[in-house]
Structure to design on (185 residues):
């Protein structure tokens, strides 16, 4: 499944830990990367972490392609088994997602929003998906604003061993409402 945007074609393919780890290592260790917990990771750490994802039945990683070239990473998880942190009661149909938009795409105006929209379109295409769950670092105000602009509603702050984050949820209805073109007054 691919999405055509004004920014080009966005598509997804399964992340291959052996083939893609070196590429991802460069992304997660970039000083501007939002995956702060992996900023000091070695290549072997990235390989090991994503081999665990590949072996899990509750987590999946996808390499996002922009016009056929790697541009972002999407991880999905079942929050019933991979809790985002703190006391969170997942409901049937919840799916968690984590995104990393690669440099230099991360600073390209509007690209991250196009990626989030493509991700939500993909996740909500599954009739079993009722809500999408994200947990953004409390310091990442850009991601928080982006999430809000596409329909995520803040639930509360949560704490994990690695960080403080904001737990937010988005329903298909909230996403559709946020995606409608706004009329000029």
């Amino acid at each position: 499944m691919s999405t055509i945007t004004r920014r080009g074609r966005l598509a997804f393919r399964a992340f291959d830990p052996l083939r893609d780890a070196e590429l991802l290592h460069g992304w997660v260790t970039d000083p501007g990367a939002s995956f702060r917990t992996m900023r000091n990771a070695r290549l072997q750490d990235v390989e090991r972490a994503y081999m665990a994802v590949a072996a899990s039945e509750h987590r999946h990683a996808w390499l996002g392609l922009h016009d056929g070239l790697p541009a972002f990473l999407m991880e999905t998880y079942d929050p019933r088994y991979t809790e985002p942190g703190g006391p969170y009661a997942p409901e049937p149909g919840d799916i968690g997602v984590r995104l990393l938009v690669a440099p230099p795409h991360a600073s390209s105006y509007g690209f991250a929003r196009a990626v989030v929209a493509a991700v939500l379109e993909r996740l909500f295409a599954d009739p079993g998906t009722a809500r999408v769950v994200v947990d953004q670092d409390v310091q990442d105000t850009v991601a928080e604003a982006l999430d809000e602009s596409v329909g995520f509603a803040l639930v509360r702050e949560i704490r994990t061993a690695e960080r403080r984050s904001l737990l937010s949820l988005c329903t298909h209805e909230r996403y559709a409402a946020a995606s409608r073109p706004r009329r000029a007054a």
